[in-house]
Amino acid sequence: MKMTHCAFAALFVYTTCCVAQGSDAAQYGICEHTSFTTDHVRSERLYALMHEAGIGMTRTDFHWTALAGKDAAVPLNFANLDQVVQTAKASDMALLPIVTASPGFSDPLYDHLDLWRGYVRAMVSRYADTLRYWEIWNEHNFESEKRWGSKAQHETNYVATLRAAYEEIKKVDPALTVVYGGTAHVPLDYIEKTMKYGAGAYFDVMNVHPYGSDTLPEAYLFEQMRGLKALMARYGQENKPVWATEIGWPTVVAEKPWMYKALLPRAFQALGIDPAKSTLGVLHDIDEGWLVQAPTFDLVGNLPAFASVRKVRLADLAALDVKACPVLIPCRGEIFPRAYFGDLVEYVRRGGTVLLPAGIPFGYDKAVRTKGKADSAPYLAHANKALHIEVNGCWSMGIKATEEIDVPSVTPAMTKMKNERFLGERHLETGDTFTPLAFGVVGEKRYPFAGFYKLNSSLKGNVIVFAAREGDVHEEISRDLQAQILPRTYLILLSEGVEKIFWYKLSSSGDDVNGDREQNFGILDRSLAPKPAYRAYATLTRERPEGSSRPTIIETAGVYRASWTRPDGKRVQAVWTAEDEASTTLDVADGAVRAVDYIGDPITVTAAAGRVTLTASPKIVYLTDGSR
Q: What is each CA distance from 336 to 70, 159, 339, in whole angstroms?
């Protein structure tokens, strides 16, 4: 058998691009607050770094508040923004401006649409020759009543604001493109309500921020994008482009929570469970987008050590053997796929122990994810009663959040800790008991926020609850993991027809260790030194340059294979897994095969009879037919 053995070095400066950098047609974008600064020399440096990574468009805020005076009578001050636009133009960098941030004299915005129209008209008229896309607001689905009115008015008031901006922009130049304001996540219910109020007539591009930084892109992006496209089709918008103007995973190594290892041994001892001799089950079903334990969220690593850990698919929960898997973590916060709640109750009825690690469990359905837009109270009451537990927010108890804690028999790692969620005994049946483990304290009053329910009634199992906020669970995303996730995210979104994607963001302003996650999304650190994700972005844009065909992705037995054709006609394949390694074989063209990994380092592959066998992992491997 004739065999070809090849290894090629990746040239970091290599590009094959039929779309000029800085072009409005650029698919590869990034978010950076270059409009907030007066240090335009630094902006030039940032734009140069973007170009080196193959990034052609920068999304930045054009805040009304930065231009406005104390009232509407004061003329807008464009001095710094003029320099922002000129610097980008001189640096051959296209900008996507976000028209946002109204000054106090114009709030609520929907009652001052005349002022809003004037601002939009002045802004767009000034820059229309240079800036051809205009995004109308940022994450408006999460904003307060002060800006958008009551919950019942929210969507209609955004549509009125969008319409006013659209009309003014099209008066300036009908060829300008109006981009629907990027929503936080992909809240289909919210977007549908705006469609019902006529939003479809007032944008040219649909736009979302499909964040999932506590999970993996394979677990949710396919489903979310297809759901969005189906929604658009129902309202006759299926031919409009879709963009994702924010998405990202931060690099963060949070301080490990002390509570689990400090308090769970007491609970397990009282319940007759020896972790060293037991199997811990975690609901884990990437096909359904449900990951309790993931590389981005190390929950199991913060618990007492179990003899083994077993991943349990959602469909297998109904028949889960309590003896083989006596302890189960079904969720890691307040979201749970309610379609499987009955199976979870039956597991407890058969004697299983459920560990609920954070927040008010079962507050939101996995399919909703609208963060505060769904009325969860009726289901919470059902879930609490069904499991004989009681978890309440201080807001429903008529008390304030506690700021201090008391942990009997344990010296806690801290005494100051805010708690807003507490446990009770209201749903216990005869034979059930509740044992508190930790309390929030206000004066002489103590409210339990951690404890366990030992059930010996219609349910024969146990429920251990930690109601502290979900952020207390350890989250850890290394710099290398961020680099692994970035190209996988882009390829999935591109394969689903998303036309422009903007990573959030270019530069970090914080530190990874125990830092604020919000400050560490960048692919450069605070000194502007590249993180591995910067190399991963540059490698992606080299391997799939502008002008390449839309990737197609096939998943087989956990192995993902994307393929596309470059502008020079050569086929490129990318192969990876979401979690575990797996051997896979790919068809390649006869002759040389060039292979590089996710950050552009060369990989040696062996091609035999038009096939390559390699070990796929979460670190993408790119294979190009034929040498350059």
A: 47, 31, 9
